[in-house]
Design goal:
The protein is about 40% helix and about 15% strand. By secondary structure, the protein is an alpha/beta fold. α1 (about 15-30) packs parallel to α2, α1 packs parallel to α11 and α5 crosses α7.
Length: about 250
């Protein structure tokens, strides 16, 4: 009942011409993929061309971040109203790089999540522990706090679009992937937390993606597990063949 979702996080890569070239090569490779929701998250300057190039296809376009105000004196920021106006449908919230380099916190994640839901954007909320947290046995405490504060005050009746991405920070861009067992255990814990914070029904329908060094050769072993509903892919999503291969391998 949970439709698999695979999202590409291009981070600060690809100028508009490169985004267009990627999409031109990528679309034929995924033309028959109807079981999976596919999302590309380009940088802000490549959103418009990406929307144009995917118009009328099953590929959705998401932003990598946004501010939570509708508008105002917030130099450099992009609002949910602005994303709506150009037909962006998804938004990453609280990626670990945003938390690490741009001071995002569980509190700002909460503001952004509320804004995304209010504006009918599909929020992909990123959580995950650092290496030191895992090594000291604090993984579940960290996830619990990120979710308790991040999801605070969300109306369960409005939470259906929510997507969570579990991205252990030690696995992002490092080539170290969580073993399927580590990932499944974390996803199961996250689902139980959502049941407590929101409701068991929302927990059962929320898609929880795995992210952190997902590649064509490990996608199948991660994506087929009970509580893993897709992937958030960084490095391996920059090449159309590799990203299409991840999608194909996860829907086996
Ligand atoms: P990675 O990045 O696939 O390059 O590890 C994942 C992410 O940061 O979302």
């Amino acid at each position: 009942m949970r439709k698999p979702l695979i999202a590409a996080n291009w981070k600060m890569y690809k100028i508009p011409a490169e985004a267009t070239a990627f999409i031109g090569a990528f679309l034929p490779l995924v033309a028959s993929q109807e079981k999976t929701e596919i999302v590309l998250c380009p940088s802000m300057t490549s959103l418009a061309v990406s929307l144009e190039a995917t118009k009328g296809t099953q590929v959705h376009i998401g932003a990598q971040t946004m501010d939570w105000h509708d508008n105002g004196a917030f130099t450099g920021e992009t609002s949910p109203v602005m994303l709506n106006a150009i037909d962006v449908t998804h938004v990453l919230i609280g990626h670990s790089e945003r938390r690490q380099y741009f001071n995002e916190t569980d509190e700002t994640v909460n503001h952004k999540l509320k804004a995304a839901l209010a504006h009918k954007l599909v929020p992909i909320v990123c959580v995950g522990e650092h290496k030191a947290d895992r090594e000291s046995g604090r993984t579940n405490d960290v996830l619990k706090k990120q979710l308790t504060v991040g999801l605070q005050g969300i109306d369960p009746a409005a939470a259906a679009p929510l997507v969570i991405a579990y991205e252990p920070v030690w696995a992002i861009g490092t080539g170290l992937t969580a073993t399927p067992q580590i990932a499944e255990d974390a996803h199961k814990f996250i689902r139980a937390q959502i049941a407590e914070i929101l409701s068991p029904a929302i927990a059962a329908s929320t898609r929880i993606l795995y992210g952190g060094s997902v590649k064509p050769d490990n996608a199948a072993s991660l994506c087929c597990l009970e509580n893993i509903d897709g992937a958030l892919v960084g490095g391996a999503s920059l090449d159309p063949t590799s990203f299409a291969q991840i999608i194909a391998n996860s829907s086996i």
